[in-house]
Design goal:
The chain is mainly α. The protein is built from 6 helices and 5 strands, in the order αααβαβββαβα. Helix 5 packs parallel to helix 6.
Length: 191
């Protein structure tokens, strides 16, 4: 039910099913190094980097990522939020409402990939399309127009929420396409 629990399962291969109900391993159990994918890849010569453009204290990621073996954690403090602007167009999208945009995160990943020759494992978690979806997160930049099949099937508020969510999904898709094209242009072996 929390992003950090999904991260924990992916990075360790352990299931939160075996923890007490409502546990948050990052907060309650991550107080020593544990076996993980980043540690395995580090032993294979990879630089391991976690990217999550939100506060490093949230869900105790700052400590959890260290115990999971990441060499570096890129959080919101590593983005120059003063120079980012509200997303008014898809070309210059530094912020999406109150969150760092997927475009800005992809730009950061591209920069990381182009630094040095050491192979890299980059674990990135987007924040742009995180709840709450509120009317107008993307200002007047909303090319998606949600039309309920039947009149009064959805309230105007629900339609606005769905529009904002859908716009965020479209932006995430565009950011992934941008990252893939960047990787293809680099001609580096990439998975």
């Amino acid at each position: 039910f929390n992003t950090c629990n999904t991260e924990f399962e992916f990075l360790t291969g352990l299931s939160v099913k075996f923890f007490p109900e409502n546990s948050i391993p990052y907060q309650q159990y991550m107080n020593i190094p544990i076996p993980s994918l980043p540690k395995i890849l580090k032993k294979q010569g990879y630089e391991t980097i976690a990217v999550h453009p939100y506060y490093d204290w949230f869900w105790n990621r700052k400590n959890a990522y260290r115990y999971l073996g990441f060499d570096q954690f890129i959080s919101i403090k590593d983005f120059n939020t003063a120079s980012l602007t509200i997303a008014n167009d898809k070309v210059n999208t530094g912020m999406a409402g109150d969150y760092i945009s997927d475009h800005a995160m992809v730009t950061k990943i591209e920069t990381l990939l182009n630094q040095g020759n050491q192979p890299k494992f980059i674990f990135a978690v987007s924040i742009q399309n995180h709840y709450p979806w509120n009317n107008g997160r993307y200002d007047d930049h909303n090319p998606l127009h949600i039309q309920p099949k039947q009149p009064n099937h959805l309230s105007n508020s629900d339609v606005n929420l769905l529009q904002d969510y859908s716009e965020g999904v479209e932006d995430a898709n565009d950011a992934v396409v941008e990252l893939i094209k960047s990787i293809q242009r680099s001609h580096k072996n990439t998975i």
